[in-house]
Every structure is written in C-alpha cells, then in structure tokens.
Amino acid sequence: MTSPDPNSRTDPERSVASLAASIRPVELSAAVEARRRDQQLTKPAGSLGRIEQIGFQLAAISGSAVPPLVEPAAVAVFAGDHGVHAEGVSPWPQAVTAQMVANFCAGGAAINVIGRANGLDVRVVNVGVAVPLSDHPLLVNRPVRLGTANLRFEPAMSRAEAAQAIIVGAEVATQLLADGAQCLLTGDMGIANTTPSAAVIAALLGADPARITGRGTGIDDPTLARKITVVTEALRRLETDNHDGPLGLLAQVGGLEIAALAGFCLAGAAARVPVIIDGVIAVAGALTACSLQPLTVAYLIAGHRSVEPAASAALEHLGLAPLLELDLRLGEGTGAALAYPLVRAAARLMREMATFDQAGVDSH
Amino acid sequence: MTSPDPNSRTDPERSVASLAASIRPVELSAAVEARRRDQQLTKPAGSLGRIEQIGFQLAAISGSAVPPLVEPAAVAVFAGDHGVHAEGVSPWPQAVTAQMVANFCAGGAAINVIGRANGLDVRVVNVGVAVPLSDHPLLVNRPVRLGTANLRFEPAMSRAEAAQAIIVGAEVATQLLADGAQCLLTGDMGIANTTPSAAVIAALLGADPARITGRGTGIDDPTLARKITVVTEALRRLETDNHDGPLGLLAQVGGLEIAALAGFCLAGAAARVPVIIDGVIAVAGALTACSLQPLTVAYLIAGHRSVEPAASAALEHLGLAPLLELDLRLGEGTGAALAYPLVRAAARLMREMATFDQAGVDSH
Q: Does B349 touch chain A (CB under 8 A)?
C-alpha cells in the first residue's frame, strides 16, 4: 500500500489530512490530577467505578482536572443509502432511509424521544440518501452523492467523495460546537448500512467476515449467509486493488454516513470535546477516524455494546469499554443518547461533589 | 419455622402483614398488548433490547399498554447505624453515617449531584442513626432506635422494631407518591451496612457467607475474613433460634435501613409504581420484601449490578437482570439514580414514538 502523490490529492483529501493533523494528544496529567482530587470527594475512592473513569477521561480531554460540564450536547444523525442494498442484505425497502429522515424531522423516531428525554439537540444530516430530499428547517441537506454504488462489485464511491463526506461530518460537528454543544454524539440512518460497516471493520482489523458480519436489524439465516458472501467478495477486491489507506478503503467498501461519522469524530477530537459513539455504524466511522489519526481514540466514549459482532471486535481493538450493554441494535444514535446521562453525571460529580473537608465528613 | 400467634403480633407487625396482603399481581395482559403495539412503532421490533423489555414491564405494572411516564421520580436515602460496626468490619468511623446525612441535606453528596442531573427528588430519612439528629427541612427524622445492636452476638433489633422500620419505609414511599412521584428509587447510608446485607441475603438464599460477603466500600483481606466470620456466627444463631419468618430474620441479622427499604419496595408495589433498586443494601431490602410478598418482584427494576457478590446472588434468585454494570459500590441510591434515565426513556418511547402508519414509513 503506497500513499498517493500529494500533488494528485483533491481539495477535500487535503482538508481531511489537515484535520487529522490538527488533533493533539489528550492531557494525561489532568487525568492524574483529577484522580488525586477525586480522593478528596465524599465517597470511598473508586466507589463510582466506571463513572469515575469517565470523569478522568473528561479531565484528560479538556486538559482540566475539574473538567467542564458536557451540557448542552448534540447528536448528529447522518443518513445515507447503499448500492449494496440491491444484494438483498436487508429486508427493509431502501425508501425507508428517506422516510425515516422525515420521521426524524417530525420528531417521531426513537432518537427524537430519547433526545428529548435527555436534553439533547438532535440534528439530521443528509449526506447521501438515494433520492434528493426537500429542504427542511431541521435537516442539514449536504448530499455528497445519491447513495453509494454496489460495493460487492465496484467501489462504493470515489476517494474524493469519501473525503467530501468526511468533511461534511466534520463541518456538522464544528457547527454544533459553534451552537454551544460541549459533547457530541454520533447517530446514523441507512438501510443496509451494517453491510459496509462490517466490511470496513473487517478490512481494518484484518478479521474474517464470517466472524464479523451480523444480523443488523434482524435478518434470517439465508440473508446472513448472503451478507457474509457480499462482504467477503468486497474484501477480496481490496486485496488485489491498491486502496491507498483508510480513505481508499472507505471509498471501496464504506458508506457516506460512515465517512461522515469518521469526520465527525475527527472534528470532535480536534476541538477537544468528548464524542460518544453509538453502535456498529458509528464504530466503523470511529475506527476509520482512528486509522486516519490514532490520537482520536482518547476523545471517544463507547456508549453501548451493539449486538453486532463487528462492533465488539472494533471496540476491543480500540480499547474502548462500552458503558451500556442492553442488546440494542437500532442505530440512529439511540445507544449514545441513552448513555449520555452517565457522561453528564460523571462531569457533574467532578464539579459539584463536596470534599471531606467541606462537608465535615471523616475520612479513614 | 412457625408463624407467631397472630394475637401476639404488635401493631406494626399487623401493619406489615396488611401492607403485604394489599399487593396485587401486575397485569401481564397489558405487557402483551404493549408488545403488540410496540411492533407498530418506527423501529425494527426488538431493536431497543432491554429498553423495550422495561417498557413492557412498565405496562404490566401500570396495567396499561401505554404506560404512564415515570416522571417525576424520587429517591429516598434511608440512613441507619449498625452495632456490628464494633467488630471492625469497616475502616470508616461510625460517625460518618450522621456526617453523610448532613452532607445529603447540604446537597454535596454523589446522590445529590446525580439526582440534580437526572431530575430526581432526593429525600433523606433517618430510620436509625446511632446519634439523635437535629431536625432539618430536608430530613425525614423517624428513628426507630439509635442504631442496631451487634448482630454477631445478639438480635440487631426486636421484631417490633423491624416492623416499625418497614412501616417507616412504607410511609416515606406513600408520602413521595402523594407528592407526585411516579417512580421510586431506593437509597441507603449506613457505615458497616454491607455486613447485615450479606447476612440477610445469605440467610434468605441459604448461601455460604464466604461466597456472599464482599468488600463493601473496599476493605483489605484481614477485614474481609473478619466480616465473613461475623456473618457466619450471626447465621449460626439463626439456625438454632426460631426466627419466625422474614421479619424475625430481619430482627436477628438485619438493619433498620434494610427493613425500611423492604417497606419502601412493598409500598411501591402496593401503589403499582415501579421501584428502581440500587446496590446490595437495597437488594437485601428487596429480597426481604419479596419474602414477605413474592408478588413484589414484578414491580422491581434492578438499577445496576453492585460489585458485592451478595447482590448478584440475590438478583439472580429474584430473576432481575441489572440495567447497568459499571463496577459501582457506593450506595446512597447512586446506581438506581444513574439507571433512572433508562427507565424514563423506556416509558417515553412507549408513549411518544410514531407508528409506521403515522410516519408514512414502510414496514417489511
């Protein structure tokens, strides 16, 4: 695998490289100081388990032993369609992607309900639905193309399109941060999108597609067998082609929303804010982001463990332990949104708890 | 084990029996109808995993296929002290119980912070701290006695006192419901209270104390060995004495806050509202409640899996799968309070999601 001649790079490719290069390491000294300070708070040290660990991570991300609140927070739901849908990898009609975008805009989907319950701003982004979508006040309409090509037989998109989709994701993140978000959550919608997610994760991990590919929203055995065949054939093409790094891999077997999610993670890391990732689609995007810039992983919080095997494999590879294990497989950002109150509480605890001295409580 | 002559029962014992007898089964038909209705909501059926299951449980509890919201909700933190503290089972001074009650009233403890983050009313109840506590607007001051006796050598309290503490817990629940709570969360504070919790759970499950007894807030090996000895000796006394059912068992080896938590669970079940239980102290109370009235269990939601082995053993016995597994071991109701947004989201999803027909989304 060789890098392309820099002079041949498109503008979006240069923007992606520049974004990835702008990410700095988190500040571990702030986490160490946060941990020292945590021992003065009125509870046995360590008694809040994983919640404390999240607090220390927030300290490292922000560079402050008393990290800022993660409120308000916003979830971006990136929608895209997939040419591989033609292979019968999902029982759902492709039209459902656009229909669900309308449902998000009308506030009737699961992510809307959970978003309202947990105080999240929900932003819907068309990064590549198969049909043109009408503008809507709640829709960020930024299609890079009208769905991908069929990754079983040909590249899902061009390198330039993959880079463009990454930039769309990054720009959405930047806009949400400009609007006040202190924490970003990933969401996705795209019928058949667990297929490119499995392909991206299998390729980046060098894993067996049969072990990685899952049942998505719930497919039967024959459909699963077909899906594994499709992913296997797509990966075989990668072995012979020179796919030129993560961007080439995304172009060959990825999806537009996966690319956008990668950009969203990169931009969150560049801005030093925590990014709570959702299920297998988000994990594919996050893994791609970490391939482009490994420093990204320290800014990521895994919201939940999807039932998709590819998600667990990639999270383990990234060293991310999910906060929730609730057998979720919906996507839309629902798992990230359900996990958000845990992160919010972690930040508040670091800021608002009394110390032993302040409260007049004996230590031991 | 024989039941005591009803004519010899004290008034609080009769109240407990009457409360337990008032609990009705949940309505499974409402859960079935909720599940049927859930299949019309704009998501693949089953894709929200455990969250959907909680929704169906809420339907059964309320008797309505579209269950009411669980907002607002309240957590009661029952505080009590333990004579067994003299055995050196905790590194923390007993005075910390009263000091933490003051911290709760001042709003500086972890449960206060999480409660504020998640919109919970936090109520503090003195059901038996070792020293008299001054009245405070945020304290329900209902001590049954000034801490328990040392359960290693003698009954922790009398049957009548155990029943009184149960009634205090029930009355607090009833008051919170009268104040508008639609969901109850259990909390506790009491230095050394993992020792009586282990004893109660070991006795009710017939389990080996060495397998059940844990490290509480974090004790070293010699302290753990001492704690196991104490629990073992207390249980040996139970084998020879006639402890007259769950109430007698509570009196022998329990704690005042454990008894109050049992009453709190019973009253929640009697009022047909969900009760989210916290860690091992709450589980000991809940298990006692379920011994007094097995129908109670269907009203309980396990907020999290405490690191205490007794908690897992009792939850498995009750068939309750915890929502969170975050290595928490603080108590105060923190695990229940952290889990509350999941239950809140489950209720909202059942009520607020659009159906396929409403949203114009194709099904398959």
A: yes
